[in-house]
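User: Quick sanity check before I run a bigger batch. Here is a single chain. Can you write out its predicted 3D structure?
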Amino acid sequence: MSEYIHKSHNVTVLLYHLVFPAKYRRVVFDGKVEVELKDVCLDIEARYQIKFLEIGTDEDHVHFLIQSVPTYSVTKLVTMIKSLTAREIFRRCPHVKKQLWGGEFWTDGYFGSTVGKHGDESMIGNYVKNQGKEYQKLHSDHQLALF
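Assistant: Done. Predicted structure follows.
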């Protein structure tokens, strides 16, 4: 569950639901890629003011439920997550680069939505689980962490 983030001059609870499709909508999320994606995201969480509340794959795209601080715009979050995860997955899983013809990992686009604090978090979680074909939850952490 998300918690309020207390900084020196503000208190926030900013939650985002982000969806990133793989390039060409290829089904690249096998067991190895899923493990590496989760590990990379948790490494990002340790270095930046981002909390991955939930990460889930659905064949050719990934859903993220993220909590962050107001200094990170949605564009900055998307750019940071896409670039770091793509670089590390290509490095750790070279077979993926062959599947994508040596190109990019993510499509240029993404879906982003804000999530309300009261009640909507679980509603988005249920939506993510039920909207796809074979959704697999890779990570879930609803514990408070200090940034």
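The mean pLDDT is 85.

User: Great, the batch can go ahead then.
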